[in-house]
Specification:
The chain is α+β, with helices and mostly antiparallel strands. The protein is about 15% helix and about 30% strand. A hairpin with a 4-residue loop joins strand 8 and strand 9. The chain is globular and about 45 Å long.
């Protein structure tokens, strides 16, 4: 999995910002994301600049946005699937907002990567949903 490959290489990343226990899981929708729920998932740390990515790693810029933040304290697995389905299947459509960029997970000392348990936070960028044109006629 992406985390088991990334965590041992984290010390290679220059210019890190935040503590050693602060990581991010960034969800980058694919081009056809409106037609499916497919995305690229990137394990990440925050850095001062994207210019010095180690070999085999890439940088992604997450633009400033207004985020709805959802705490998830039930670890990984089925509970996470339920939380994500609620956020994107129920909350987002009912909120009057639409996804406005990359959503991401924020992990710190409250989460144990060794056991997959603990609390982390899902950040969802939103902007007012585009008004749908009224049907003609």
């Amino acid at each position: 999995n992406v985390w088991t490959r990334f965590v041992p290489r984290m010390p290679e990343v220059p210019g890190r910002i935040g503590g050693d226990d602060v990581t991010y899981g960034i969800c980058c929708p694919l081009e056809d994301a409106r037609e499916s729920d497919r995305f690229t998932y990137i394990a990440a740390v925050r850095v001062q600049a994207l210019d010095d990515s180690p070999p085999g790693m890439t940088g992604v810029r997450v633009p400033a946005a207004r985020y709805a933040v959802f705490g998830h304290a039930h670890g990984l697995g089925p509970a996470l699937v339920r939380t994500v389905r609620h956020i994107f299947g129920e909350w987002l459509p009912a909120s009057g907002l639409e996804l406005a960029g990359h959503d991401f997970e924020y992990y710190d000392s409250r989460f144990s990567p060794a056991t997959g348990t603990g609390e982390f936070f899902i950040h969802v960028p939103g902007r007012p949903a585009a008004a749908q044109d009224a049907p003609a006629g």
